[in-house]
Each structure stands twice: as C-alpha cells, then as structure tokens.
Amino acid sequence: MADTLNYDTLVKEIEDLVKEKNCGPILIRLSWHDAGVFSSGALSGGCPNAAMRFTDAGEGTFGANAGLPTVALTLLKPVTEKYAETGFISHADLWALSANVATKVMGGPDVPTRFGRPDAKESSESVESQVGRLPDGDKGVVHLRDIFHPKGFDDKDIVALSGAHTVGKCHAERSGFEGAWTEDHLKFDNTYFTHLLSKKYEAETTANGNPQLRCPVSGTMMLTTDMALLEDEAFKVHVERYAADQDAFFSDYVKAWVKLQENGCKDLREKL
Ligand code: HEM
C-alpha cells in the first residue's frame, strides 16, 4: 500500500479534511504548540517532534495543549494512519504540513514546508514543562518578550505571529477563554489587526474565571496578550502596518512562521 502514497494525494486529503471539518485553526495551533516549546535561552531544546501524541506524561498532558492531543489528533487520524503510521511522513512533518495547507485553504499565504523532523518515540522526549515556553493569555508585554525572544523572535515577529488569531476560537473547556477574535473565524486575513485598532473592548471574566476582553458590538474577543500589542509602541507600529497592508502581514508572517516550524531542526530537506 505504501508505494501508492504520494505527496500530492497527501496534500489533497489534508485540504479536503480542512474544508469538510472546518479544522484549519486547530491544525495551525497543533503545529505552533509542537514547535513553540523550543527555547534557546535559559531553557533549551524543544524542537518540533510530535511528542504531544503521547498522553501518559509530558507535552500531551500540558494544560496549554488542552484539546490538541484529543480534538486535533482525532480529526487528523485518518490522514495520520494512512501517511504517518506507514512511515511515508513523520508525525511532526505531517503536523507542520497540515498547518501550512490549512493556512492556504483558509485564504492565507503560501507557506513552504521543509521535511525531516524526527518524531519523539515516547513522552519522555517532551520538554519538562510549558512554563517559560508557551505563552499565557492573561499576561502582558513583558511576558510576550520573555517567551518569544529566547526562541529567536523580535518584536515584529511577535506581532506577525499573533496575527494567526485572525482564525479560530477560544474554547471554555480547553483554555478557559471564550470566543473568536473575528466574525469569520475560518478566513485567514488581516482582520485581527483591523479589529485591534478599530473596536472598543471591555474587560470581562469568563465562566472559568479567566480575564479577557470583548467587544459588545461585534461579540468578538481579545486576550490580554493580544491587547498588549497596542500598549507598547514597538509592537503597535507593526499592528498599524499589518492593518493597513495585508501583503506586509502575510510576508512577515510567513518568515516568522517558517522559522517557528523549523526552530532547532537540523538538515531539513525541500522535498518529502
Ligand atoms: C502570543 C501569545 C499567544 C497566546 C497567549 C495564545 C493563546 C491562545 C489561546 C488561549 C487560545 C485558545 C485555545 C482554545 O481554547 O482552544 C489560542 C488559540 C489559537 N491560537 Fe494562540 N496564542 C498565542 C500565540 C499564537 C501563535 C504564535 C499562533 C500561531 C502562529 C497561534 C495560533 C492560534 C490559533 C490558530 C488558535 C485557534 C485554535 C482553535 O480554533 O481551535 N497563537 N491561542
């Protein structure tokens, strides 16, 4: 069977899955949290390795990853069984490719995927903790820099990457935050930035006790970390640029996103 598999059918099956299940946003979040634990600061290691697929311990049990080993991997299961479990592609490469296909399907930029991320073989190959590696939505400017600078990202990258919140939703039963950042949460465009600049948000507390912000007119929300992008001039200039120029957002997003997906990886190749 393995010899009938090829790259084009894999991409097509991911495209179909994203369209049928409207699961583009969670596939982006899966890749981001696999790669986003990387740090080269006081903490080290954490290159993307699909360690989240083990749920006995480690990344698959991190609170920050709630919904990813369950909802995202269940959605991806038919593709995983056919292509990753037969050895055609590593799980980590499949997660990276799925996010990039999803971005495109939702109207976002073309993102090149390179291949060769080795998979963790067990949960012990996880990083030790999410603390200091993955961001908390109820924190602010200093926290954003503390998390992203040791991954090699500057202020512009932080703003561009945050723009992924133009798609998707917060789920009470996963993060404890609630709502979508934009009205069309399946369209990848620069609406996140235009909303940040144009809407008035009011503080609220979710049923789970989490602080967040909501626009009473549109019903869309923002996390404290999203609003932090307006508080600091070095962030805000980029919010303004991306709100005015979607091409500039896409171009900077692709550079930062590819770097994120490849952080700590060695010897990646252009072709699967
Ligand atoms: C800047 C700091 C960030 C914080 C604090 C943050 C926090 C969150 C939270 C709390 C959720 C809701 C999860 C849920 O309840 O299902 C979420 C969703 C999401 N995040 Fe982020 N995030 C950040 C950065 C990023 C980055 C860098 C990306 C990708 C480039 C990203 C992509 C997404 C996507 C696509 C969703 C929607 C998932 C879905 O609809 O299931 N986020 N984020």
UniProtKB/TrEMBL annotation:
Residues 27-260 form the Plant heme peroxidase family profile domain. Signal peptide: none annotated. It holds the Pfam family peroxidase. One of its GO terms (molecular function) is heme binding. Keywords: Heme, Iron, Metal-binding, Oxidoreductase, Peroxidase. Residues 110-135 are annotated as: Disordered. This is Plant heme peroxidase family profile domain-containing protein. Gene3D superfamilies: 1.10.520.10, Peroxidase, domain 2. The keyword rRNA-binding does not apply. The keyword Membrane does not apply. Belongs to the peroxidase family. One of its GO terms (biological process) is response to reactive oxygen species.
